[in-house]
Design brief:
The chain is of the alpha/beta class. The chain has a single domain, classed as Rossmann fold (3-Layer(aba) Sandwich). It is built from ten helices and seven strands. A seven-stranded parallel sheet has the order 3-2-1-4-5-6-7, sandwiched between helices. Helix 4 packs parallel to helix 5 and helix 5 runs parallel beside helix 7. The longest helix has 21 residues. The termini are far apart.
Length: 274
């Protein structure tokens, strides 16, 4: 194995990606399969997961994928998903908590139900699934090669921006904080916990604004680096955190946002000096 492969390969590792049939979840799953991992892809739509797994297996990549149904929205669904994973493997080296929902509506009509649904899945489901999979993560961890957990946050959980997605933004801020709590508590178990805080990427969740190339270009114009994110941006970050090169990183909120999280046009003094 060459030097770069030794740093970024995930060959032989077993991963679970929730919500892995579309969007960022699919980008993560693709990167892991290309890196040599055995990837379990789960979402509420089992047939879609099976189809994506078949497409990934046709890439002639060093890894492989299998897809099946899994719901993190209820206690019963999580129990069924954990049982399904345990039937397929006794060791989990990587857990990607990508499954999530959003809700957009004007402030005056934003319903209470939007808080219950979004927080339950994006935060509660993430927590309970991770907790219940700890025995498998423990089995996949060691001093030299910790097990890895990556939670999906958002730049909207970093910046005070809602744009009608009040519960979603708050849920992603909660994911960021929960990531740090887990990182602190899981370190003694040799499990690292980090989060992605993506900006705009093409996905089912952002299709209303990024479905066409023209829309994506327009949205990208508002990003400091001048474009929306690409699948390689997600795959590269995933392989970094899940390979040997990321084994000493825990509690990080990685801003995959083209500079949005640090962008400011406030200009405290510049306007006075013009």
């Amino acid at each position: 194995m060459g030097y770069l492969d030794s740093l970024f390969s995930v060959a032989g590792k077993t991963a679970l990606v929730t919500g892995g049939a579309t969007g960022i979840g699919r980008m993560v799953a693709t990167g892991l399969v290309q890196g040599g991992a055995i990837v379990l892809i789960a979402s509420r739509k089992g047939e879609a997961c099976e189809a994506v797994a078949a497409e990934l297996n046709a890439l002639d990549a060093p890894g492989s994928a299998v897809g099946f149904a899994g719901d993190v929205g209820t206690q019963e669904g999580i129990e069924a998903l954990v049982a399904e994973v345990k039937q397929r493997t006794g060791v989990l080296n990587i857990l990607i908590n990508n499954a999530g929902v959003t809700w957009g509506e004007p402030l005056d009509t934003f319903p209470h139900l939007a808080w219950q649904k979004v927080m339950n899945i994006n935060v509660g489901g993430l927590f309970t699934l991770t907790r219940d999979l700890l025995p498998l993560l423990d089995a996949g961890s060691s001093d030299d090669d910790p097990a890895r957990v990556i939670n999906l946050g958002s730049v909207m959980g970093t910046q005070p921006v809602a744009e009608g997605a009040y519960s979603y933004s708050a849920s992603k801020a909660a994911v960021h904080h929960l990531t740090k709590i887990m990182a602190n508590e899981f370190a003694r178990r040799r499990i690292t916990v980090n989060a992605f805080a993506p900006g705009p990427f093409q996905s089912k969740m952002t299709a209303f604004a990024t479905a066409s190339e023209e829309q994506a270009k327009k949205v990208g114009g508002g990003v400091p680096l001048g474009r929306i994110g690409s699948p390689d941006d997600i795959a590269g970050a995933t392989l970094f955190l899940c390979g040997k090169g990321g084994s000493y990183i825990s509690g990080a909120i990685l801003p995959l946002d083209g500079g949005l999280s640090v962008y400011s046009n406030m200009g405290l003094f510049s306007h006075a000096l013009e």
